[in-house]
Amino acid sequence: MGYETRCRVRVSDASGVREATSATVLLETDELVVRGEARVRVPRTAIERVTSRAGVVTIVSPAATVSLSLGADAAAKWQQRLGEAPKQLIDKLDVKPGAMVWLSHVTDETLVTQVSERAGKVVRARGSARCDVVFVQVDDTAQLDRVDRAAAAIAPGGAVWVVHPKGKSGVADTVIFARAKALGLTYTKVARVSDALSAEKLVWPRASRGK
Q1: How far, in Å, are 2, 73, 91, 137, 208 from residue 185 at the CA level?
Q2: How do residues 106-133 score in pLDDT, each as one tens digit?
Q3: Contact residues for 200 (Cβ-Cβ < 8 A; gap 6+)
Q4: Are residues 97 and 194 in the same domain?
Q5: Which helix (H) or strand (E) holds 40?
Q6: What is the Cα–Cα distance from 103 to 163, expressed in whole angstroms?
Q7: Which residues contact 193 (CB under 8 A, 6 or more apart)?
Q8: For 90, which of 1, 28, 167, 199 is 20 to 30 Å away at the CA?
Q9: pTM metric for this prediction
Q10: Where residue 206 falls among pLDDT bands split at 50, 70, 90?
Q11: Rounded CA gap, 132 and 116, in Å?
Q12: Looking at the structure, do residues 143 and 186 belong to the same domain, yes or no?
């Protein structure tokens, strides 16, 4: 998950200057997002400079300058986070080097590429077994049986990531949680895959592993 706060925001870009007294600010893996009246998206790779003064963090990029009024303690934390090199998607997904991974119906090329670079063995066939991690994409509720097959394919200590579209046209996370509960799986984590896709991590409870 990203880093999130609400604070006063000032944005200066080609369209002028916009201010919001209380805006939601998200630091995602690949971008800084401000929602609401001062909305803007700044790719982390485009950030040229991050400064902090009197509790205000200022982020400078070619397209926009964003100022976040956070207070001294929070400003120090955000300045540090913004100054760090952004993590790759794969670093959020708990795929260890050498892991056996099954990619089932996954369409996101960034995810496919990074998993292929990290994992020891990647299976793209119709089925697999004893996997460390399974990524299964579910685009609508008619495809929920894919979660059943993914659950059957993981080792006792393995994990299923259910990749699904965001928004009203996708599959609600509550629907995925209900399917997981029916199978005996436990939800542990959510990750942003892209602007269009999210993923929920499901595992077997420790008490049931090996049974």
Answers
A1: 24, 39, 23, 17, 9
A2: 999 999 999 999 999 999 988 899 999 9
A3: 161, 162, 164, 173, 176, 177, 180, 187, 189, 190
A4: yes
A5: strand 40-43
A6: 10
A7: 89, 108, 110, 111, 163, 199
A8: 167
A9: 0.72
A10: confident
A11: 14
A12: yes
* Tokens representing residue 9 in the block: 């925001």
Q: Where are the alpha helices (DSSP H) in the chain?
A: 72-83, 109-118, 145-153, 173-183
Quick check: helix, strand or coil at residue 1?
coil
Q: What distances in angstroms separate CA 59 from CA 14, 127, 200, one per listed residue?
A: 16, 46, 31
Looking at the structure, do residues 196 and 97 belong to the same domain, yes or no? yes
CA angle at 22 for the pair 45 and 31, rounded to the nearest 5°: 15
CA distance 31 to 35: 13
Instruction: Give the H or E element holding residue 12.
Output: strand 3-13
Distance CA 160, CA 154 (A): 7
**Greatest extent of the chain over all pairs of C-alpha atoms, in Å:** 62
Structural domain boundaries, residue 59: 3-86
Please state the rounded mean pLDDT for residues 16-32.
93
Same domain, 31 and 110: no
Query: What domain count does the chain have?
Result: 2
| Radius of gyration for the chain, computed over Cα atoms and rounded to the nearest angstrom | 20
